[in-house]
Design a protein that fits this description.
Layout lengths: L1 H18 L7 H22 L8 H22 L5 H21 L1 H9 L6 E2 L2 H4 L13 H13 L8 E3 L3 E12 L5 E18 L2 H7 L5 E5 L6 E4 L1 E6 L19 E2 L4 E2 L15 H6 L7 E9 L5 E12 L2 E12 L5 E5 L13 H13 L4 H5 L6 E3 L4 E4 L5 E9 L5 E2 L1 E6 L5 E4 L3 E2 L1 H9 L4 H4 L2 E2 L3 E5 L2 E9 L5 E8 L6 E4 L2 H14 L11 E15 L2 E6 L2 E8 L15 E8 L4 E9 L6
Parallel strand pairs: 1-19, 28-30
Antiparallel strand pairs: 2-4, 3-4, 3-7, 4-5, 5-6, 7-8, 7-9, 10-11, 11-12, 12-13, 14-16, 15-16, 16-18, 17-20, 18-19, 21-23, 22-23, 23-24, 24-25, 26-27, 26-29, 27-28, 29-30
Helix pairs in contact: 1-2, 1-3, 2-3, 3-4
Length: 604
């Protein structure tokens, strides 16, 4: 009601002042016109909740519409040309139309647009992106996560008729907490930087909000394991001091050596950007609690490390007139109570993955590439122009931070890139990797045309960037018409014809690493990873899918594999033989052999 009255009174007052300039209009008509535009402005303001800030276009649009509307009404009513005073109002209207364009025109502010994104720092790929761990590859995309979450929701009788699953957002969760699911089963979750999709249960309609007032929780879907799906209807704190972190494979996931504290707190989600109505509509809640003049965007559902649900909303300003959007902080809203906490970029809680929205990062990167040599060059000389490739994905670095990944190509290029960038999703720090290669679109087409995938007409998901032995690599899943994962694919960023596909993750990765080796591609190009040579006695040998697997005495945490393409001596090697092999240290337990020599043989 406060928003309606504020916009309504403002609109009525402006309309009244404008129509007063025409002395031929009766008092009755002036009052009627003012009431009409007051109701229009009040309803529009309540519905659209625009940002009431001098440097945002919405209030100027409202002003323009009301002034022009009042002038038109006065002319139609009197059937006379407006008095000279009205021309003043028309001049003001034209000024309103021209002023935003003039102050934001790139011809006058090219350098300002260029400098919105900091200059990228050239970096080493292996330093910033962890070597691929087959257990941590993101095999569940947003679409599949939503499908799996809806299936879990449908397993609880009656719940699906009152709530829907909202948008799934990916995040790292690093904490321990107990949960109750919709069937009152207790589960203990102890997650160590585990990658999960989180989505709220939202009202399925305004009548459901009136009836129930809240929804009973959220859904978690693992991004790396399709069987890890949790309905969370209550949470309980856990004392992590007793957590045993000696399990190297996954030191905290599912660990029960923790101490629960207190009682379960039932979840009651009340505020939503979609599926919330009236005062429970999240944007309206923020506007009426002190943020009427703030630019707000990117309403993201995230779960804190203790399992509690929040909305993370990016706050932004315009740096160049009415344009040049730039994130300056976040609002963290408790999805249950509506409590609001504001943070700058520097002091936001660590569990928040995303502060810089994808669309703002993309816009700033494109402006930086477009105005690299000023405005004139952007349309005349076009020297050194660059642009981002289609699609932007979220990747996680060796430091545990999240980054926006995008390829960068010369303006006008189609399939090739001149390198790629990683932009910190919190600080907006950009890192540049001058590794030419294929666009995400070309990589996706390569995977879809691989044997087995082409005949079945599988479609590839958006590529995710990984580090395979120091080689920048796209990973994709290949789905059938039913939306389920059928195959997996790895495609080299540098050469999209170098790929490996398989029915399982391990077979796809083996085929890809074998393709890299057989094509003579140096897995440690540019010293991106450490190359290791060892001499040891063979403890055991196995053969699987055309690959020879070797275990070495004294090395219990690794298996080494390769095909006869690496060396024909592999197929004649037996336990007890002394071998010298070379491999790239990537942190994996299953390691591709780069060079191999059986000291007792001389087969070349």
């Amino acid at each position: 009601m406060t928003v309606f009255l504020g916009f309504g009174i403002g609109g009525a007052l402006i309309a009244f002042l404008v129509i007063m300039l025409n002395k031929h209009v009766s008092t009755r008509m002036r009052v009627a016109t003012s009431i009409f535009f007051g109701l229009f402005a009040g309803f529009s303001g309540w519905l659209f909740l625009p940002t009431l800030n001098f440097w945002f276009i919405a209030p100027w649009f409202f002003l323009f519409f009301i002034i022009m509307g009042a002038i038109i009404v006065s002319v139609i009513y009197t059937e006379k040309m407006p008095d000279p005073q009205v021309y003043i109002a028309i001049t003001v209207v034209l000024g309103i139309a021209v002023f935003p364009t003039f102050t934001s025109w790139s011809a006058l502010h090219a350098s300002d647009y260029h400098e919105l994104m900091p200059e990228p720092v050239t970096s080493r790929f292996a330093d910033d992106v962890s070597p691929v761990d087959i257990r941590q590859i993101r095999i569940v995309d947003q679409e599949l996560a939503h499908r799996l979450g809806e299936k879990r929701l449908g397993e609880i009788p009656g719940l699906g008729s009152r709530v829907e699953l909202g948008t799934m957002n990916i995040q790292l969760i690093d904490g321990c907490f107990d949960i109750l699911d919709g069937r009152e089963n207790t589960r203990s979750l102890c997650l160590d930087d585990a990658l999960f999709w989180a989505g709220p249960l939202k009202h399925s309609g305004v009548n459901k909000q009136w009836t129930f007032g809240h929804t009973p929780g959220y859904v978690l879907v693992s991004a790396t394991n399709m069987s890890d799906i949790y309905m969370v209807t209550a949470v309980r704190s856990v004392d992590e001091e007793s957590t045993d972190s000696n399990d190297e494979a996954n030191p905290r996931m599912g660990n029960s050596d923790t101490l629960s504290t207190g009682e379960f707190d039932n979840l009651e989600l009340r505020y939503f950007p979609d599926g919330g109505y009236f005062d429970k509509y999240l944007l309206r809640h923020l506007r009426t609690h002190g943020y009427m003049s703030e630019g707000l965007t990117d309403f993201t559902f995230e779960v804190s490390n203790d399992g509690n649900p929040y909305w993370v909303v990016t706050k932004y300003v315009h740096r160049v007139g009415f344009s040049g959007s730039d994130a300056v902080g976040v609002l963290v809203v408790d999805a249950q109570t509506g409590d609001i906490n504001e943070y700058s970029v520097d002091n936001a809680p660590e569990w928040i993955d995303r502060i810089q929205p994808e669309e703002l990062v993309r816009e700033q990167l494109n402006d930086q590439g477009k105005f690299v040599h000023g405005w004139m060059n952007s349309w005349w000389g076009k020297r050194d122009l660059r642009t981002t490739t289609e699609g932007m994905s979220l990747v996680y670095g060796a430091d545990g931070k999240s980054y926006w990944y995008t390829g960068v190509q010369s303006a006008g290029a189609d399939e090739g890139t001149m390198g790629f960038m990683l932009v910190d999703t919190r600080t907006k720090e950009p890192r540049w990797y001058q590794i030419a290669g294929a666009t995400e679109t070309a990589a996706r087409a390569s995977a879809e045309n691989a044997p087995g995938a082409r005949e079945a007409e599988y479609s590839a998901t958006n590529p995710i960037l990984y580090n395979v032995g120091g080689v920048p690599t796209y990973f994709m899943t290949l789905k059938g018409d039913d939306g389920l994962v059928k195959m997996f694919a790895f495609v080299s960023v540098q050469n999209y014809e170098t790929l490996g596909v398989g029915r399982s993750l391990s077979s796809a990765l083996r085929n890809y690493q074998s393709a890299l080796s057989s094509q003579g591609q140096d897995l440690s190009a540019d010293d991106l990873v450490d190359r290791v040579q060892i001499e040891a006695v063979v403890a055991d040998v196995a053969i699987e899918e055309g690959f020879y697997y070797i275990r070495l005495e004294g090395i219990n945490d690794k298996e080494f594999y390769g095909s006869s393409v690496v060396s024909p001596e592999l197929k004649w090697t037996r336990p007890g033989d002394t071998v010298v092999l070379t491999y790239d240290e990537s942190g994996q337990s299953s390691v591709l052999i780069v060079r191999f020599n059986n000291t007792g043989l001389n087969i070349r």
